[in-house]
Amino acid sequence: MNFLNKIKEIIGDQVYSKLESEADKEVALAMQMPLKDQYRQEKYYQPRHLISVLFKECELF
After folding, report:
1. pLDDT value, residue 1
2. Four-point Cα dihedral 60, 52, 23, 30, nearest 10
3. pLDDT digits (tens, 9 = 90+) for 20-60
4. Cα separations (Å) of 10 from 3, 5, 22, 52, 54?
5. Helical axes 51-58 vs 13-32, angle rounded to 10°
6. How many domains does the chain have?
7. Is the pLDDT of residue 12 over 70?
8. Burial 25-45 (b: 16+ CB within 10 A, else e)
9. Can you say whether the dihedral through the CA atoms of 12, 16, 19, 21 is positive or negative?
10. How buried is 56 (Cβ within 10 angstroms: 0-12 exposed, 13-18 middle, 19+ buried)?
11. Using CA of residue 50, residue 29, residue 11, residue 17, what is the dihedral sign?
12. What is the spatial distance between Cα 35 and Cα 6, in angstroms, rounded to a whole number?
C-alpha cells in the first residue's frame, strides 16, 4: 500500500475528495494569474487562507 492510499484510508474518501478539490482550485487560480500587472511589475500568486474552510478535515491528520 502506498502513502496516498494510507492517507485516503485514514481520512476517508469524502474528506480526501474535498481536500483534492480545494487543491485543484488553488492550482487553477495560480495558473490564471498573469505574471505581470498593467504597470509591467511582477506579480506573485498569494495562496488563499483555507484553514477556516478545511480546519475540520485537517484535525484528522
Report:
1. 67
2. -160
3. 998 898 889 888 877 777 788 877 667 777 777 777 776 76
4. 11, 9, 19, 21, 16
5. 150
6. 1
7. yes
8. eeeeeeeeeeeeeeeeeeeee
9. negative
10. exposed
11. positive
12. 37
Instruction: Specify the range with the lowest mean pLDDT, choosing from 1-10, 13-22, 42-51.
Output: 42-51
- Tell me the whole-structure pTM to 2 decimals: 0.61
Residue 24, exposed/middle/buried by CB under 10 A (0-12, 13-18, 19+)?
exposed
Contacts of 54 (CB under 8 A, 6+ apart): 18, 19, 22
- Chain centroid offset of residue 11 CA: 16
Could you list the residue range(s) of the whole structural domain that residue 19 is in? 3-58
